[in-house]
Amino acid sequence: MPKTADLVTETFKEGGLLSKIMSGYKEREQQIELARWIQKCIKEGKALLAEAPTGVGKSLAALVAAVEHILQTDEPVIVVTSSIILQEQYINKDIPLLEELYNVSLNPVLIKGRNNYVCPKKVNDASKGKMGATTNEMVKECEDVLQWAMTSLTGDKSELDFVPKYQTWAQFACVDRNECTGKQCPFYDICPYYRQRSKVSTSKLIVCNYHYFFTALESEGNMLPSTAKVVVMDEGHEINDIARDFQEKKYTVKSLQQHFDYFTKAMERARLSAIGDTTYKLLDEMELDNVNSTLINMFVGLHHEYKTANPYMNFHMITLPERTRLQKYARDHIESLFNAAQVAEAYLEKFGFSVDTLRSLVDYYGEEAVDWMMVVHDTIKFLRERAGLVQYMFAFDENQDDNDFIFWLQPMNDSVSIHAKPLNGSGLTKYLFEDKEEKMIPIVMSATLTTNQSFGHIKQDLGIEDDPVKFPVEELVVTSPFNLTDNLLWYLPEDTPAGNDKDHLPFVLGEMQDVIEELKGRTLCLFTSRKNLIEAEDYFKQSLPKEINVISQEEMPKQKIIDYVKENDNTVLLGTKSFFTGIDIQGHHISAVLIDKLPYPIIGDPVNDYLMNEPRGFHKFSLPEAIIKLKQAFGRLNRTVTDKGVVMVFDGRLSSARYKNKIFNSFDFKVTATQDWEVVQSYIKELQLP
Fold first, then answer.
1. Under a CB-based contact definition with an 8 Å cutoff, are residues 77 and 228 in contact?
2. pLDDT, tens digit, for every residue of 402-426?
3. HSE on the CB side for 46, CA within 13 Å?
4. How many angstroms separate the CA atoms of 650 and 646, rounded?
5. 464 CB contacts (<8 Å, ≥6 apart)?
6. Distance of alpha carbon 196 from alpha carbon 189, whole angstroms
7. pLDDT greater than 90 at residue 368
8. At the N or C end, where does the chain have fewer CB atoms within 10 A?
9. How far is it, in rounded angstroms, from Cα 100 to Cα 334?
10. Highest mean pLDDT among 124-133, 177-186, 435-444
11. Strand pairing of 47-51 and 672-674?
12. How far apart are CA 288 and CA 344, in angstroms?
């Protein structure tokens, strides 16, 4: 371990620690600049927004500064990312490298959300034939998951070499947190999720995803160490969308029925316990059938209100006056929820139940009876939460603050579901950036945080106000270490139709085919909709030469796809939104990135539609979002100093729209572009591909 207070210098300098274990190591001034800024912000207690393009080495820059902080303070550091691939890079590659380099043990742990792990109770039930498979395909998939789950040491879904369908995975994992009974579960001690969580308290470097991190922020439990002050938020361009999705509130018939199924199954198990004769009586007194029927009546009434409003809309936005007017459909259901909860609470009081007296209750009534009491306790909480949610949805409290949320109804056959979602993620994130006594130090990094040379868009999404006293946030843009002017050729074919033209996709597929055949594969094709991807897959499998493999993102897990492309150059890989980021394939395996059109936010999403229709919504929301996604997509091509290739965005608006300069101005290098196919052919020949 170097005897210095400046680990950044000792690690990255020429002749430093890294150079002694990495052959051909060369100092990267951009990486050192980023590491120094992170080091400075941690010491000064300031947040940092840092844009650092591909090739800078963001993860090592952040980790070196983080480890220095750990060694100086003995405080743990949290690293958050959006993709499993990057989480595993941190835990399997970057952190072990630094542990070896500094001769320290950081006890790193990777923790994911509960639904990434198998539930041992469900696995046990499945091994006894208790599975809800409804088709032969699902039966086969369940058998494959079961065979793996019975021998897996981690129970982590990412180990599977295929992506199980949601309905299949739900047979083996707690996809709804209400299914998990925590410490009351007889399989708690061997639960993969809780075993992994138990390691968090002794770890100095905790790697997790944003969903887990946001859950921990709202939890009073020990999901993350309370002593952790520094959080490195990698893939920061994803924070807003994830935080916004995390805060969505929704109510469906299914959500109620799922809990009632859980309740009645527990009742069946408790029937033979010491208090078994009381269980059915409670069921009658709670009148759960009435709770369910009032819910259905509410949804049927709401559906009737809107079934003819606009049959072509897949959602119906409801404003505050409408929410107030629709209260009449909700009153009976709210009353039935509170009544059922009150009856259940009185039932538990007869036994002197409280969470603090469980041990004595087990000694008196037996374990099965107390398990049942815990289920009743959970149900009381669930019923009251549902009642509060419906009251919130329909604005029963005139003073409630919901100005930052939008509300809508989603048609579902003869019913609806009710939704509320914030317009950005700041309800969770702004508290990270405020200057208060007990605060974290967020280090936000990504290759794409700015648009038109400004952090304004991301700052607004995160709730960072233009007040340097209240929000002391530093901003950094690091230049690319690559010569992208020479190593990246933009191609826009002449007469390319605009992305919203009805004849656009047939034109795109033909142009894509020319590039794919010229490169004999080696292509990543990105699509702005799943519909376009499916059409492209059908087209390419019929039109491309047989020696070129066509692989869709849905065929196997992302890491397996990456490994396959690295081993098979003659591959064209097709992906949608999730493949605009998180794909690291170096060298000639990917020599072209082809994008069907400018990746504007999807129309038909309630939040997107609302923001698009705000004053200047296109320039304040749609265009910045498209630029960030475009920059992410381009980052899939040049992964090393020597990587070269062609990028194509098949959208005529790139050459004709008045805002095109805002797009080009968002890239920090001089763009080399052409509309001449012969220039592209010559460029590809100069690549000298094997």
1. yes
2. 889 999 998 877 788 999 999 999 9
3. 17
4. 13
5. 47, 430, 433, 471, 473
6. 11
7. no
8. C
9. 59
10. 435-444
11. unpaired
12. 11
The pLDDT assigned to 25 comes to 85
Q: Which two tokens mark 679?
A: 């220039």
Among the ranges given (139-148, 261-270, 544-553), the one the predictor scored with the smallest mean pLDDT: 261-270
Quote the strand ranges of 521-667, DSSP E: 523-526, 549-552, 571-575, 592-595, 645-649
> What DSSP string runs through 607-621?
HHHHHHTSTTHIIII
What does 232-289 look like in DSSP terms, one character per residue? EE-SGGGHHHHHHHHT-EEE-HHHHHHHHHHHHHHHHHHTTSTTGGGHHHHHHHHTHH
CB 234 within 8 A of CB 442: no
Q: What are phi and psi of 603, to 5 degrees?
A: -75, 140
Sign (positive or negative) of CA dihedral 180, 181, 182, 186: negative
pTM, full prediction:
0.88
Q: What are the tokens at 99?
A: 């542990």
User: What Rg do the C-alpha atoms of the chain give, in angstroms?
Assistant: 27
Tokens 């059922």 belong to residue: 340
Q: Give 528: exposed, middle or buried? Use CB within 10 Å, 0-12, 13-18, 19+.
A: buried
Helix H segments across 394-502? 426-433, 456-462, 484-487
CB atoms within 10 A of CB 391: 18
Cα–Cα distance for residue pair 27/349, rounded to 1 Å:
68
**H-assigned helices in 494-602:** 504-519, 530-543, 558-567
Largest Cα–Cα distance in the chain? 85
DSSP secondary structure letter of residue 90: I
**Cβ-Cβ contacts under 8 Å for 233 (sequence gap 6 or more):** 80, 210, 239, 442, 443, 444, 445
- Residues 204-217 have pLDDT tens digits of 999 999 999 999 98
Percent of the chain with pLDDT over 90: 64
Q: How far apart are CA 471 and CA 454, in angstroms?
A: 17
Copy the structure tokens of residue 658: 């008045």
d(CA 339, CA 384): 10
8, 39 contact by CB (below 8 A): yes
With beta carbons less than 8 A apart as the criterion, state whether 640 and 458 touch.
Answer: no
| b/e map 196-205, b = 16+ CB within 10 Å | bbeebeebbb
